[in-house]
Amino acid sequence: MATPLIQISHLEKAFASNQSWFSQWRIDRGKLRRKKDKVHALNGVNLTINQGETLCVVGETGCGKSTLARVLMGLTAPSKGEVHYQDQRIDHLNDRQRMLFRRRMQMVFQNPYASLNPRMTVYQTLSEPIAFHNPQLSAKQVEEKIRPLLESVGIAPSNMDHYPHEFSGGQRQRISLARALSVEPDFIIADEPLSALDVSVQAQVLNLMMDKQEEHNLTYLFITHDLAVVEHFATRVAVMYLGRVCELASTKTLFSAPKHPYTQALLSAIPRLDNNTTQPIRLMGEVPTQMDKPIGCVFQARCPYANPRCYAESPDMIRQPDNSSVACHAVDEGRL
Amino acid sequence: MNLLSVSNLNVNFHLKGQDLAALIDVSFTLNRGERVAIVGESGAGKSVLGFSIVNLIDKPGYIKSGSIKLDNKEITKMTRPQLQEVRGKRIAMIFQDPMMTLNPVLTIGAQLVEAIRSHTRISFKDAKNIAIEKLHSVQIASPEKRFHQYPHELSGGMRQRVIIATVLLLNPDIIIADEPTTALDVTIQAEIIQLLLDICRNNSMALLLISHDLGVVSRIAERTIVMYAGRVVEEGPTLEIINDPQHPYTQGLLNALPQMALPGQRLNQIVGSMPPLNERPTGCAFHPRCPYATDQCRQQQPGFINSGVSTVACFMVEDMLTDTNSDYDEEID
């Protein structure tokens, strides 16, 4: 039985949009009122991340995947909802209280050109977190920790005094991973770590991530829009749309029998090498903005199967016979 | 006759007092209405090739030798006004990031009208009609409204559609698309791919697609050119290259795709990385990363041979072909 490491319940996050003061005034029922528009990035996310698994979060731009990562890491506070790490609630902690969890949760960012400090050598980049979280270590002991760490990600320790610009994109992403691993975390959030890299380099980084998971029994939350990577790498997949999880299933189930109409469209859109005969399912229109919280299902505007119930009532995640969970009225009613 | 033919193109860059070769002896042809893809990792010279076709290589780069012929007219020797005629009207380019291509302080309409009016002498009203018609043809909803909007008001997919509309304005013969879908989501990518395909088929335009995504390439292109370290290493029909890649580099690229490995298994990575311009090895540039490299590969540059599947520059393929041929001879004896 899988033990949950992180539990997310009813998580919501709204950002105030940067409107001018003047445009915040509306006439509402004969009265002048001031109302700030809000962008609803997360609209009630419920997720459990189990120990030792790789949970992939997929979805289009603007679906809230990166916001989810930032809220989990405590980089932004949620508007509503709770995040539990094992038994402790970790949202709304202050910096000092959070420090303990910062050591256990680390993050790898999308762009290795931006996430490494260009004015710090690799040694400085890696020694800072180690020395900070282990103040008892001497400078020599810190260096002794860094050498094997660099070697394990395939960077020669002799290059320790080089600056980020002297490395290629793949090497930089491996240094980012080494930095995340330097404090021996249990849980790593990787936000699109491969999208800035070439196919062959992607393979290197992905292999390294899988090796490290095996060595240290790591749990990954892997955020991506590349479904080919997901199919290869994930234990379970959560598909997000407009701030909600619309389908959650084991990788095998999701790819063999996608249920939510959005998942079906996403999967059909992957350009594959083998079958070029199948036409992708076309979704009408673009992702709507998250300015107004929609009544009913978030996918209603682009869904080919929408009926009046979808416009009125928001679907809940319902467990299916094959252990996947889907939030869709059409699936629930057996229309699909 | 070929619409575009590039032969023995060499492009060099003057960097840090060195003269470095970015493209070495690149030759290929493009026929009317044909869709060809150029594939390779970053640094292979794909984009440099795209830019040099419209003579957009700027200092410190320059075209050292070779010829680029459009309908038998030499592009490398054209004057500025002649080039102006070619760019946009005959050959149009689509770039990776639509936000970088569109001017953020001008409306979509102003940019489209400017593009038409700089090439043809027509009234603003006529130009506007053409622009709206083209916006409509790339499936932009309510084009009259979009005409007056600024680029930041549109989503990424919509912006790329506007770019495609701009390209269509002057009915060019060739579209060069440099990673047109890299910045987009999968669902939007699928739509843009379909749009590009439809446009090329309906107007019999030739497409030169520059991409590193073999999935996208297999959807669009009829023929594929694989580049490594400034040279063409393999060229042939897309489907045949994907089903039976000959060059070890092409094999490596295909094997590195996640769908080529069993779920949960390690991916087959190509060891090492593309050498930078100033550290190109002798002989076959791929030899440090090639699992089959021999002494011959380290010293000599392989020539092109026809393997039956594709045209390929590799000593291993060459040896295999001669071996099978000699076996065949023995059987006859």
Automatic annotation (TrEMBL), chain A:
Key word Nucleotide-binding present: yes
Signal peptide feature range: none
Annotated InterPro entries: AAA+_ATPase (IPR003593), ABC_transp_ATP-bind (IPR050319), ABC_transporter-like_ATP-bd (IPR003439), ABC_transporter-like_CS (IPR017871), Oligopep_ABC_C (IPR013563), P-loop_NTPase (IPR027417)
Record-level GO BP terms: peptide transport; transmembrane transport
UniProt keyword terms in alphabetical order: ATP-binding, Nucleotide-binding, Transport
ABC transporter domain residues: 27-267
GO MF terms, alphabetically ordered: ATP binding; ATP hydrolysis activity
SMART domains, sorted: AAA
PANTHER family in the cross-refs: D,D-DIPEPTIDE TRANSPORT ATP-BINDING PROTEIN DDPF-RELATED, TRANSPORT ATP-BINDING PROTEIN
Assigned protein family: Belongs to the ABC transporter superfamily.
Official protein name in the record: Peptide/nickel transport system ATP-binding protein
Organism per entry: Marinomonas pollencensis
Automatic annotation (TrEMBL), chain B:
Catalytic activity: a dipeptide(out) + ATP + H2O = a dipeptide(in) + ADP + phosphate + H(+)
Domain of life: Bacteria
Keyword Nucleotide-binding in record: yes
One annotated Gene Ontology cellular component of this protein: plasma membrane
MF terms (GO), sorted A to Z: ATP binding; ATP hydrolysis activity
Main location per the UniProt record: membrane
SUPFAM superfamilies reported for this sequence: P-loop containing nucleoside triphosphate hydrolases
Record-given protein name: ABC-type dipeptide transporter
Native species: Marinomonas pollencensis
